[in-house]
Amino acid sequence: MSFFRGYAGWRGKPMGIAHALYVLPKERHTGAARALMAAVAKVALERGWVRVELFVEEGRPAIRFYGSIGMRDLSHRHLRLEGEALQILAMEDGTART
Q1: Structural domain includes residue 97
Q2: DSSP type of residue 92
Q3: How far, in Å, CA of 72 to CA of 56, rounded?
Q4: CB atoms within 10 A of CB 44
Q5: Are 56 and 69 in contact (CB under 8 A)?
Q6: How far is CA 68 from the centre of its chain?
Q7: Residue 29 to residues 35, 59, 62, 81: CA-CA distances in angstroms?
Q8: Is 95 part of a structural domain of the chain?
Q9: Which domain holds residue 71?
Q10: The model's pTM
């Protein structure tokens, strides 16, 4: 997984863009992806980023996961995590669940 700083132009604030999140099939449903996204959310808040966005290919099972952590589907699988959902995820301790 990688993530980097972007810019939310209409808000005049920095934001995070998550990229290339991939969990090996044998590691799925262990909480690994949630722990990674919680770490990104924490870093985003520490750096003053207003949100985290990512894109997901159509039809991928990960779409349900992203919805479960509070990301909103803006359209065409452009997802956004912001506000209370960003803060809640950032407070997780980052340990994978089994």
Answers
A1: no
A2: S
A3: 12
A4: 25
A5: no
A6: 11
A7: 11, 18, 11, 21
A8: no
A9: 2-90
A10: 0.76
